[in-house]
Amino acid sequence: MNPERIFEEFPAPSYRGTQEQALRDVRDAFAAGNDVVLVRAPTGSGKSLLARAVAGCARRAGAGDPSDATGAYYTTPQVSQLDDVAADDLLADLNVIRGKSNYTCILPEERETPVNQAPCVRERGYDCSVKHRCPYFSDRAIASNREIAAMTLAYFMQTAGSDVFRKRDVVVVDEAHGLAEWAEMYATIQLGPRTVPFWDDLRVPEVDSIERAVRYAESLAGTCERRKDDLLAQDSLSPAEVRERDRLQELIGDLEWFVSDFRDPQSPTTWLVDQSDPRSSGRDGGDGDDPQGGPLTIKPMSPEKYLQHTVWDRGNKFALLSATILNKDAFCRQVGLEPDRVALVDVDHTFPVENRPLYDVTQGKMTYDERDETTPKIARTIVRLMQHHPDEKGLIHAHSYDIQDRLADLLSDFGVGDRVRTHDRDGRDAALDAWKASDDPDVFLSVKMEEALDLKGDLCRWQVICKAPFLNTGDSRVAHRLEEGQWAWYYRTTLRTVIQACGRVVRAPDDYGATYLADSSLLDCFERARTDMPDWFAAQVDRMERPELPPFEPRAALEGTDAGGRSGRGSRTGSRTATSGSNADGSGGSGRSSRSSGSRRSSGSSPLADVWDTDE
């Protein structure tokens, strides 16, 4: 790697904000001998451009020994981020490769067939006459032979050990804050009717220990191997059989990795196993002498060995970029890095703090036990915010489909349903695209859209975080960590998601958007995670106020819509931001509230009592 090339490799014609200083700091961090540089760059700092500049510093072919790694990988866990890269003219030399299922066969009779089900994978010895023009193999050949290959983190990890995508000199991971969690998710093994093709033929035992899970995994891997061999012995497979063969191969690899890792005395990974009730998969429990178990989930915690194989062995130098790598040492521990060999570069926020205000409209806690009382109050507050922003689109972070359904019903009962949009699990993207494309000032009730969402300008001017996005304490990994007292990790993870959510509606220095906090547990989270808060976000928290909102009048919330008697979206009549002066419930108050006085937690309460939630 030659970090001195970083400025000439920057792809834009000029610098914006603090980009030039960021490049200088990243260059110096690599020049000082660090193997890994964490770049904490907030929204709007141009992380993709910084990433391209770093990737361009990789050793070039012919610059060293033939055995030396050359070139760079750019990878991100988010498909939408990769789409943005592919569409950016400044990043045209990032050669994008996706998984086979994203391409269709070009044979005349197979034009609607994904490449992963095409004749070349269905028929033994198939000689494709147009393989040189196949969109997948063409993109793969280009990406593997050019200086910078771009792909999702999932594809990057799946190609570990590949002869095509070998070790490179530099690896850049964008949106890297969740690297440990993504690795845990990819390494988790789900065994049930949706993941094991012959589940109904299996006799699944009750698994009461991780050792019992290992023995069962060995047995199941052998069964999968035999079934896969039976499929491979056939001259031709149907698309369904191809899917089964590929799933079996993936399952064999996962099970063998689990068994090998568990039996490796040097592995730092802790494995947990959960087993569902047999009735959840349509089984009975067997008789008393021979009880049967239900679906299994085998989960790793801190899968450092998995990351070593799939990420750290893939390059010489690494740049990890994100707005929310909140604690360097904690992040390094989670992903298996030595903090002494890792540098942290902080990039200043260039958006004026007054353009990204936080407002305290808290109505109580949204814990499971208190949700029934708090949700109607939040729904009324949303109506008042709709009144306050009559001509501006709003985004509601509902956190779960249960909360989304409750809010949708309440808002409909209040008579403002004509301005409200929702989505389900299958129609997320279509519903989001339709809302973004509309000129109406509709309010979108979203679930799990705190990240990878660009709502610049009038696409959205205000948003509400309805519930502190605490991790589910019913998850065995979360419960295990909390039993070990890892509360700092728990609140830091929540804070990270909140900061990501706050960045959805302000995307440029001249953009503006308000974020309203409706769950009082958010204020408690800010207090507990204050030491991990970036300075630029702490400035937002310190300026937080109780806004002055109009009295509850649902009919007024429709004034900016066709339902309110106006023809579409007119000029913006809502104020740029909410103003201070009285409480959000209309009861009056003292305007600006300090961070410390905003906490609703008594000093003697249990942390778990504040965050306990079993939402899925």
UniProtKB/TrEMBL annotation:
Nucleotide-binding as UniProt keyword: yes
Compositional bias of kind Basic and acidic residues: 276-286
UniProt KW keywords: ATP-binding, DNA-binding, Helicase, Hydrolase, Nucleotide-binding
InterPro entries xrefs: ATP-dep_Helicase_C, DinG/Rad3-like, P-loop_NTPase, RAD3-like_helicase_DEAD
Boundaries of every ATP-dependent helicase C-terminal domain copy: 401-524
Gene Ontology terms, MF aspect: ATP binding; DNA binding; DNA helicase activity; hydrolase activity, acting on acid anhydrides, in phosphorus-containing anhydrides
Top-level taxon of the source organism: Archaea
Region (Disordered): 267-301, 547-616
Low complexity bias: start-end ranges: 570-582, 592-606
Gene3D superfamilies cross-referenced by the UniProt entry: P-loop containing nucleotide triphosphate hydrolases (3.40.50.300)
Example of a GO biological process term: nucleobase-containing compound metabolic process
Protein name: ATP-dependent DNA helicase
